[in-house]
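ok so for the tutorial part 2 we go from a plain amino acid sequence to predicted structure tokens. step 1 is just haveing the sequence, like this:
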Amino acid sequence: MNKDEVIAATRLWLEKVVIGLNLCPFAKAVYVKNQVRFVVSEARHLDGFLEDLDRELDFLAAADPAEVDTTLLIHPDLLPDFLDFNDFMVIAEESVGEHGLEGIIQIASFHPAFQFADTEPEDIGNYTNRAPFPTLHLIREESLSRAVEAFPDAEGIYGRNIETLKKLGLGGWLALGLSKDKPEQPDS
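step 2 — the prediction. this is what the tokens look like for a chain of 188 residues:
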């Protein structure tokens, strides 16, 4: 899959799932203003992916928020196993501190097989963080704070998202037509 196809699949997921299901009530505003930066890493190993993350952290920290408010750093091939990806997130989050960006930028994680602790893989609630590819969402904390202040009951977003997906169900998820994003069926 080339970079344009990866970005197109990620945009479709963002439009249909994140914005379309209103899983993140803050996403639409930055998306319609073209303030979301999509970056596809072609790194062949984790060190290269970390270098791409380093560049994106520096870029986002220096960028005018009116131009680029958030970045989605996507890798279509590296870290297909969720547990490996989850372990990598520890290192990725340490990179934020190494760049002196704690309290300035945070990272949210998305993965095709995302699984919250103490859930089964097929639990529909896991789909709140399932994206077509392993993705690091670099978020400006200042922007997030403004959005949370403007949104009533921001603490309830997670619970509402779980309820939205329960109502949608697996059939509804599949009907969204995100072919790369289809869940794996549990072993029988």
